[in-house]
Amino acid sequence: MKKFLLSQLLVIAAGTAFAWKTVFEDFNRFFSAGGDFFQFSGCRFPNPLATPCFYGALVFLIALVWAAGLWQSQSLASQKKLSYLLLAGSIFAWSVNAWEFYKFLKPHTDLYVGCNGLPATSPVFTPCFAGASFYLISLLLSLWIIKIMKKDTHPNA
What we know:
Elements: H1 2-32, H2 52-73, H3 76-105, H4 127-153
Protein backbone atom coordinates (compact mmCIF):
# COMPACT_ATOMS: atom_id res chain seq x y z
CA MET A 1 0.00 0.00 0.00
CA LYS A 2 2.88 2.36 0.78
CA LYS A 3 4.05 2.35 -2.86
CA PHE A 4 0.58 3.35 -4.11
CA LEU A 5 0.37 6.14 -1.54
CA LEU A 6 3.88 7.26 -2.51
CA SER A 7 2.81 7.33 -6.18
CA GLN A 8 -0.17 9.47 -5.20
CA LEU A 9 2.08 11.77 -3.18
CA LEU A 10 4.47 12.16 -6.12
CA VAL A 11 1.71 12.93 -8.65
CA ILE A 12 0.16 15.49 -6.32
CA ALA A 13 3.64 16.94 -5.64
CA ALA A 14 4.19 17.30 -9.40
CA GLY A 15 0.83 19.04 -9.76
CA THR A 16 1.64 21.31 -6.82
CA ALA A 17 5.07 22.18 -8.22
CA PHE A 18 3.60 22.93 -11.65
CA ALA A 19 0.80 25.07 -10.21
CA TRP A 20 3.09 27.13 -7.96
CA LYS A 21 5.68 27.54 -10.73
CA THR A 22 2.90 28.97 -12.87
CA VAL A 23 1.68 31.26 -10.08
CA PHE A 24 5.20 32.56 -9.42
CA GLU A 25 5.68 33.22 -13.15
CA ASP A 26 2.33 35.06 -13.18
CA PHE A 27 3.40 37.18 -10.19
CA ASN A 28 6.72 37.95 -11.85
CA ARG A 29 5.00 39.00 -15.08
CA PHE A 30 2.43 41.07 -13.15
CA PHE A 31 5.03 42.90 -11.03
CA SER A 32 7.31 43.43 -14.06
CA ALA A 33 4.40 45.12 -15.83
CA GLY A 34 4.05 47.55 -12.93
CA GLY A 35 1.36 45.82 -10.91
CA ASP A 36 1.10 46.16 -7.13
CA PHE A 37 0.16 43.29 -4.81
CA PHE A 38 -3.37 44.58 -4.07
CA GLN A 39 -3.95 46.16 -7.50
CA PHE A 40 -6.73 44.31 -9.29
CA SER A 41 -7.19 46.57 -12.32
CA GLY A 42 -5.19 48.88 -14.50
CA CYS A 43 -2.39 46.45 -15.34
CA ARG A 44 -1.83 44.66 -18.63
CA PHE A 45 -1.77 41.30 -16.84
CA PRO A 46 -4.28 40.09 -14.24
CA ASN A 47 -3.26 40.03 -10.60
CA PRO A 48 -2.52 36.34 -9.88
CA LEU A 49 -4.56 36.63 -6.67
CA ALA A 50 -7.60 37.08 -8.92
CA THR A 51 -6.91 34.11 -11.21
CA PRO A 52 -8.21 30.56 -10.90
CA CYS A 53 -4.63 29.26 -11.05
CA PHE A 54 -3.82 30.78 -7.66
CA TYR A 55 -6.75 29.03 -5.98
CA GLY A 56 -6.03 25.77 -7.77
CA ALA A 57 -2.45 25.99 -6.49
CA LEU A 58 -3.70 26.53 -2.93
CA VAL A 59 -5.89 23.42 -3.12
CA PHE A 60 -2.99 21.44 -4.58
CA LEU A 61 -0.84 22.51 -1.62
CA ILE A 62 -3.53 21.34 0.82
CA ALA A 63 -3.80 18.05 -1.08
CA LEU A 64 -0.02 17.62 -0.94
CA VAL A 65 0.07 18.01 2.85
CA TRP A 66 -2.90 15.64 3.12
CA ALA A 67 -1.28 13.04 0.85
CA ALA A 68 1.94 13.22 2.90
CA GLY A 69 -0.06 12.47 6.03
CA LEU A 70 -1.84 9.60 4.28
CA TRP A 71 1.47 8.09 3.28
CA GLN A 72 2.11 7.67 6.99
CA SER A 73 -1.38 6.84 8.31
CA GLN A 74 -2.84 4.78 5.45
CA SER A 75 -6.35 5.70 6.61
CA LEU A 76 -9.21 4.75 4.29
CA ALA A 77 -11.47 7.46 5.75
CA SER A 78 -8.81 10.12 5.17
CA GLN A 79 -8.17 8.80 1.65
CA LYS A 80 -11.86 9.20 0.86
CA LYS A 81 -11.79 12.79 2.11
CA LEU A 82 -8.73 13.50 -0.04
CA SER A 83 -10.68 12.13 -3.01
CA TYR A 84 -13.48 14.61 -2.31
CA LEU A 85 -10.93 17.44 -2.24
CA LEU A 86 -9.41 16.24 -5.53
CA LEU A 87 -12.91 15.91 -7.02
CA ALA A 88 -13.67 19.50 -6.04
CA GLY A 89 -10.32 20.61 -7.52
CA SER A 90 -11.05 18.70 -10.73
CA ILE A 91 -14.52 20.18 -11.10
CA PHE A 92 -13.14 23.67 -10.49
CA ALA A 93 -10.22 23.22 -12.92
CA TRP A 94 -12.29 21.67 -15.70
CA SER A 95 -14.99 24.35 -15.24
CA VAL A 96 -12.33 27.00 -15.78
CA ASN A 97 -11.19 25.11 -18.88
CA ALA A 98 -14.76 24.89 -20.16
CA TRP A 99 -15.00 28.68 -19.86
CA GLU A 100 -11.65 29.09 -21.63
CA PHE A 101 -12.82 26.81 -24.46
CA TYR A 102 -16.04 28.80 -24.73
CA LYS A 103 -14.08 32.06 -25.04
CA PHE A 104 -11.77 30.44 -27.59
CA LEU A 105 -14.54 28.96 -29.74
CA LYS A 106 -16.87 31.94 -29.83
CA PRO A 107 -16.32 34.24 -32.82
CA HIS A 108 -13.60 36.81 -32.17
CA THR A 109 -11.26 38.90 -34.26
CA ASP A 110 -8.44 39.37 -31.76
CA LEU A 111 -6.00 36.88 -30.25
CA TYR A 112 -7.25 34.36 -27.74
CA VAL A 113 -5.85 35.33 -24.33
CA GLY A 114 -5.88 32.79 -21.50
CA CYS A 115 -6.75 33.62 -17.90
CA ASN A 116 -3.08 34.39 -17.20
CA GLY A 117 -3.15 37.26 -19.69
CA LEU A 118 -0.95 35.57 -22.31
CA PRO A 119 -2.03 34.83 -25.88
CA ALA A 120 -2.33 31.14 -26.74
CA THR A 121 -3.14 29.20 -29.88
CA SER A 122 -5.62 27.02 -27.97
CA PRO A 123 -6.80 26.45 -24.39
CA VAL A 124 -5.09 23.06 -24.61
CA PHE A 125 -1.74 24.88 -24.53
CA THR A 126 -2.46 26.87 -21.37
CA PRO A 127 -1.38 26.15 -17.79
CA CYS A 128 -5.07 25.75 -16.90
CA PHE A 129 -5.35 22.66 -19.07
CA ALA A 130 -2.19 21.12 -17.62
CA GLY A 131 -3.32 21.86 -14.06
CA ALA A 132 -6.74 20.32 -14.70
CA SER A 133 -5.02 17.24 -16.13
CA PHE A 134 -2.91 16.91 -12.96
CA TYR A 135 -6.11 17.15 -10.90
CA LEU A 136 -7.82 14.47 -12.98
CA ILE A 137 -4.86 12.08 -12.79
CA SER A 138 -4.60 12.67 -9.02
CA LEU A 139 -8.32 12.01 -8.59
CA LEU A 140 -8.24 8.79 -10.61
CA LEU A 141 -5.22 7.55 -8.68
CA SER A 142 -6.94 8.42 -5.41
CA LEU A 143 -10.06 6.47 -6.38
CA TRP A 144 -7.93 3.50 -7.40
CA ILE A 145 -6.19 3.58 -4.00
CA ILE A 146 -9.58 3.58 -2.26
CA LYS A 147 -10.55 0.49 -4.23
CA ILE A 148 -7.30 -1.24 -3.22
CA MET A 149 -7.71 -0.19 0.43
CA LYS A 150 -11.25 -1.57 0.51
CA LYS A 151 -10.07 -4.84 -1.03
CA ASP A 152 -7.28 -5.11 1.55
CA THR A 153 -9.78 -4.42 4.35
CA HIS A 154 -12.38 -6.87 3.00
CA PRO A 155 -10.46 -9.48 0.97
CA ASN A 156 -13.55 -11.57 0.12
CA ALA A 157 -15.61 -8.61 -1.08
